[in-house]
Amino acid sequence: MDIKQLSDAVAVSPQVLVADLPAVRAAGYRTVICNRPDGEGPDQPTFVEIEAAARKEGIAAYYLPVESGKISAREAAQFGELLRTVPGPVLAYCRSGMRSASLWALSGASGYAAGDIVAAGKAAGYDLGAVAARLGESGAGAEKCYDVVIVGAGAAGVATASSLLARDADLDIAIIDPAPIHYYQPGWTMVGAGVFKPETTARRMVDVLPHKVQWIEAAVAAFEPENDAVVLESCRKIRYRQLVVCAGLKLDWNAIEGLPQTLGTNGVTSNYRYDLAPYTWQLVQQLKRGRALFTQPPMPIKCAGAPQKAMYMSSDHWLRTGRLGQIEVEFFNAGAVLFGVADYVPALMKYVERYDIALNFGFNLSAVDGPGKRAMFTRTLPGGATERFETTFDMIHVVPPQKAPDFIRSSPLADTAGWVDVDPATLRHKRYGNIYGLGDATNTTNAKTAAAARKQAPVVAHNVLAALRGRRELANYDGYGSCPLTVERGKIVLAEFLYGGKVAPTFPKWLIDGTQPSRLAWLLKDRLLPPLYWRGMLKGREWLAHPRLAD
């Protein structure tokens, strides 16, 4: 754990994990305060998980979630009141520790002058100069203006930075992201099936980012497009000539009643979280008989095929081990079809029949009772009325509803539904000409997959550079997305398509027929795509992804 002391009574840290609580107790902390809203990151345990683990260690736990960069006077006062009333010493945490440090500075609980607050923050590794300015003392100097600022260091952000530098190595680029770890999220389905080890899907952010990029290890709080500025959670402003926004998705675990309290226990799992994918494989191996449920929420979600990938791979294991006859497998899909591109449905239906899977369309998971092993679904009837349906389970794989991050949805960059509002071809913002968006947080209608980001990044890199140089020739994105549907160990239905669901295979049909299960497609997913991701896409090598110029 990376605990930073701000005063004798208060320390802050990045995200606390369940496994950290014994060390927190051993270090003498009697209270932990969570300042991070649930669902901000793919490796983030919910507060109820932390609270339960803290209770076992005799540590008090409190939840005071604060949206990044938007600390109100009321929230600062609440934090100060907690510090004055809870058993100390106190460890407060958020994604990076910055929000907690800022709350401490603004709460008045320390009794420090503004200059001493800045000094304490600096000693702990946090720049509280902008907070000092809010307290009435100068501490934040003029900010540098970068050629390009990229918000988000996931697949889309890192690939865009590398593609830009491959075109112009002298560009001054900053990438903003507080996460210390970069994840290869397409690998988590394979982790949940016992094919990949979880650690192979994670690398230190510092080892992934291009060396010439300035990494600003902080969270974004707001955008000021009229001033060409991004506001960080510390209230510091970063200025830009061109802005690229690729902030990913927020997983809304709390939208399903009871789910946060039982995730990772009672047979409730999800491959959509790094620490839970191994639990999926554990459950699959342990289940001998009973009922296994797999759910899919309303669209959009990242990798629309992932919910059923987990189902097929689990069923394949049960078939191979002679247990499938004793296990009822059911798929509860909030949508109306098995897969959005009809050309691939026949091949998938053969596996549905092979595994004797019961399909239930129009059912949205609304609540989970982990200890009682019961799942509640809501279904909309033809007349518009809704009904609730309840069923039992021995294992349930849950996919949570997903939406754009809070700081995107509340920003001037968002459309009415909360997504970054961009032109679907050029990926340039519809209202702000020097802003581009790509990846999962935009309102484009393509599949939200890493394969889509691989195609989008060169388009954005080309168009950003054209804007910087005053050129008019723009590249267009055609909506390409890919979903390697793992239907059994050793075979994949390789779905590739453009906007409108138009099938767009990369390989000739004699090599890989994407509408049929293929062993070669499995080798692509298992052996080739991970190194292509780490050594190709993230390094700016645009193999089979060179941008197409507009006509």
TrEMBL record:
Residues 2-109 form the Beta-lactamase hydrolase-like protein phosphatase-like domain. InterPro entries: BLH_phosphatase-like, FAD/NAD-bd_sf, FAD/NAD-binding_dom, Prot-tyrosine_phosphatase-like, Sulphide_quinone_reductase. Coiled coil: none annotated. It comes from the Bacteria. Keywords: Transferase. The keyword Calcium does not apply. Residues 146-259 form the FAD/NAD(P)-binding domain. One of its GO terms (molecular function) is transferase activity. NCBIfam families: TIGR01244 family sulfur transferase. This is TIGR01244 family sulfur transferase. It comes from Paraburkholderia kururiensis.
